[in-house]
């Protein structure tokens, strides 16, 4: 009884000086590679650690019939410096999150409702790992790899995705390739697609040139 208590007290001075419990991001200051500077601890309240937006379905009335509702550091500054974040994914019937990457994070997807065909492609030899996921299934998407999610069921699908960074980043490949102003002839050269197809995709995805 006596010894363990002494042991705990001997640790206290160290834990006090070495551990910073949290660093709620001050979004008024510039982001840095290590995250946002910390809000002054005296100004932190429980509201910095609670975020309620993920209970509401995102608006899927769009081209991809899908909505990602993020709880990343810019929406939820309490995550700053903690190495994780979350988002809600809503997929209407025929909805898809097209091939995309998160440059800054690995992802775990947890299916809450419906059926989602999801997969990723390895970077070393382009092996595809994909499967239809049902309610309760989880799947991993390693950092930086191309991946996708398709609603392959009859009704809506809902998932929660968690990331190993407060700022996972998102680049959707089709928007990156065709939603820009790179001249069509250069897109043709760099994708091996026909000019007509490139012009069509630029039109659909908001590109010019
Ligand atoms: C959903 O988005 C569409 C297209 O932007 C818009 O017309 C519609 O009003 C939105 N619906 C809701 C409920 O916000």
From TrEMBL:
UniProt-annotated binding residues for Mn(2+): 100, 102, 107, 147
Keywords carried by this UniProt record: Apoplast, Disulfide bond, Manganese, Metal-binding, Secreted, Signal
GO cellular component, one term: apoplast
Family as reported in the entry's similarity comment: Belongs to the germin family.
Keyword Disulfide bond among UniProt keywords: yes
Name the UniProt record assigns to this protein: Germin-like protein
SUPFAM superfamilies: RmlC-like cupins
Cystine residue pairs: 23-38
Positions bound to oxalate: 102, 107
Signal peptide residue numbers: 1-17
Positions of the Cupin type-1 domain: 52-199
GO MF, one example: manganese ion binding
Subcellular location: Secreted, Extracellular space, Apoplast
Main location: secreted
């Amino acid at each position: 009884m006596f010894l363990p208590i002494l042991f705990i007290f001997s640790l206290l001075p160290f834990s006090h000086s070495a551990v910073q419990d949290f660093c709620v991001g001050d979004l008024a200051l510039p982001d840095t590679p290590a995250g946002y500077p910390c809000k002054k601890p005296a100004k932190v309240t429980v509201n910095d650690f609670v975020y309620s937006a993920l209970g509401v379905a995102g608006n899927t009335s769009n081209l991809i019939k899908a909505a990602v509702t993020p709880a990343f550091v810019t929406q939820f500054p309490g995550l700053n410096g903690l190495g994780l974040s979350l988002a809600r994914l809503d997929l209407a019937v025929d909805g898809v999150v097209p091939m995309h990457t998160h440059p800054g994070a690995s992802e775990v997807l947890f299916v809450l409702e419906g059926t989602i065909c999801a997969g990723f492609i390895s970077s070393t030899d382009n092996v595809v790992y994909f499967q239809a996921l049902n309610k309760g299934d989880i799947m991993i998407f390693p950092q930086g790899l191309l991946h996708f999610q398709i609603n392959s069921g009859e009704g809506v699908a809902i998932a929660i995705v968690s990331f190993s960074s407060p700022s996972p980043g998102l680049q959707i490949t089709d928007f990156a390739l065709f939603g820009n102003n790179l001249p069509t002839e250069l897109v043709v050269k760099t994708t091996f697609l026909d000019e007509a197809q490139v012009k069509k995709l630029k039109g659909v995805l908001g590109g010019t040139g």
